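#lab-general

N.A. 3:47 PM
ok so I finally got the sequence cleaned up, no stray characters, all 193 residues accounted for. can someone with queue access submit it? mine expired

B.Y. 3:52 PM
send it over

N.A. 3:53 PM
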Amino acid sequence: METPVDLIIGLGNPGPKYQRTRHNAGADLVRELATSLSTPLTAESKFFGNTAKVCIDGRDVRLLIPNTYMNCSGQAVAAIANFYQIAPENILVVHDELDLDPGTARFKKGGGHGGHNGLRDIIKSLGNNSDFARLRLGIGHPGQANQVADYVLKKASSNDRQLMDNSIQDALNHLPLAIQGQWEQAMTKLHSN
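B.Y. 4:20 PM
back already:
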């Protein structure tokens, strides 16, 4: 059974201080997607974020970058999902992933939060429902658990940034398949890179 995507959420922290940091990889991808479709993201206070409606391969998809801090992302996700009556399984959350190297992007259907505070809050805000899909963008791991908080809030090295930007482009190339609900195909193509 194909499960198409009606809503794409790009996770990050708001404000210039956090722009282009590792933790904002998800927001970077959604911003890039909107730019590639010549569609501006506009602030929408009732959704606690910047939003747009785009058409990808003939399918209307809503985009949202929450303006809340990462650990309160669920507030924005629940607001827009409830307003447009979008079920969790039709949501794709794009986020940074410590367990993947920079330059790696992976689709995933459902699952836990893996210690990611943004995902943890979204699961909670959707009534403990974790059926949404994820697009995980690798940022690498600092090596020590006690260094993670500092690491994710910093900008990546220019080499890692280039790898991350490449993986964002790569993911965008395979996103239309996922949006149509062709997950196996999307995963196979993206994961073989």
